Amino acid sequence: xxxxxxxxxxxxxxxxxxxxxxxxxxxxxxxxxxxxxxxxxxxxxxxxxxxxxxxxxxxxxxxxxxxxxxxxxxxxxxxxxxxxxxxxxxxx
Length: 92
Fold this sequence. Notes:
mainly beta; four-stranded antiparallel sheet; 4 strands; about 10% helix
């Protein structure tokens, strides 16, 4: 999932970088609530994003929820991407 951040506040993912390993994320749909546990939160420099793209956009292996937004606003542009990864928890 990709969401906006805004340097002036109010973006849906403005606080994404505040997630910590072990936090729980819930994704609510019309038929189910999916629960995930955060395994990693990192800032990836824009010019280094290609280094993680294959793993971020993979279609095999352990299912992972990945949340991303722009990060590190320098007054003119965002210089990184905040990436939060989480694994699915058992349904309750």
